[in-house]
């Protein structure tokens, strides 16, 4: 290293040390007042800021120039706040609890950490993806309502159909192919079921899908109350205790993270399946029952995107590994907060459908509300102006607004490799999220308590920058007027934004998030449990006879869903559970919910050939076998 380079390096380190030297404003004020009292320092000294007519060197208000602060304040050091740990406990723990309350699917510990990183590094895209998921439910529900014939059971049947369509989309990750998957299944009907039987199985399967979803609403509300209590403690000294410095920085930091309230509420409003494999097993039993098959084939004939998820990788030990459906869960729909493709290809109701751009704009509001509130609070914390803390608010806000753009670019550049896009997005989010957390931590423990950062130099310039040593009057005014107003406005806007989001997701929310009383009522209706003694006697009359009439209607994970005994034409099993056996002549049916305007309820056809059956997948038959199959999901007709 040359002498010039070494000199430049040393000079740079000295300048950085001078700018980064932490200053205790109370100690500095007491030192200067002492020197003014013993006349060792003139009140017209150049270290005092000159405000148009006089030097600011009065007993109650002492303003120092930037140079005066750096040269006069005693013993600059790198010490942090004495009450650093209580400060962190005041808001950091509640914020971490908020992050931990985000709904995390069961996709492995490492991938769950990645979900948290995506939430922290790209909250706009996360909330956009959540709202898009809710809009998918909305559209399927509106579509189901249109396709369900009017009647006293229309609402119940429409919800069941919407749950089934949403479950297909859950597994395939492709909204556009749901119709073909369902149509193929209904057209096949290898078990030769009547329309009433298909309706019954549909409702029972939908009921199980709804019951298989988690609900952490109570825990979420407790965590949010804990966060709000922490904010209140920062505002009210009688609750949080007297702090060693102005509360503006702490309150501003807490408000900057207030978007977590909205994000956590939206995440837990949608919730998710206890496991995506649970959804897969339920749908396997449903398709197996309708087809009359005994085994599952993990194949989606009308969903090419799911097939594209399978990628081959060669490991260091030379072994070849193929990512299957289970491996592809993180980047194929299991994570509701990560959805690279946000196109909504199915129209539910033109009057109520929300466009992706509207959902994006709505997802941006919590971030802008949080950043604006934090910026105003820190800006008006003396010295008024753009300092280091307001600067990091601007920088982190710019990062959060840029992050969804980078997520979109990644999905476009590597759209044919979903796994690579997932890991690239998480790497980007780790940089944005961890950098933001680090800056907030450093700010909270006092790393920005320097003359340079206190002076508002970025907005006032070097000549106009000054440091107000312990401005008690302004501090009390802000604590009683500005801070409560900004905190109340920010939190109210966050809650209002969530209310709007909830209203957007509400139509489809009735499908998977009904009240517990509604679930019980559906169960009674589907299973005939209306509290009548006659029904209870009928339910137990066949026990021990082996005729199947006393068996429960819900199937196990290893067996098909059981139909009502009267619907079965086969012989009972030794255990009283009837098998679904194809008859000599098969007929294809259209359930009542899809047969609006259709004159015939079923049509006779030929029995599928063994070769055709062997090639049929989990969710329908191959595309070439569907030509002329008759019943269609949209515009149902028959040939």
From TrEMBL:
Top-level lineage group: Eukaryota
Transmembrane segments: 84-104, 218-236, 256-275, 357-379, 391-410, 431-457
Regions of compositional bias (Low complexity) in chain numbering: 558-568
Region (Disordered), start-end ranges: 533-639
Keywords: Membrane, Signal, Transmembrane, Transmembrane helix
Start-end of Polar residues biased regions: 606-616
Signal peptide start-end: 1-22
Name the UniProt record assigns to this protein: Uncharacterized protein
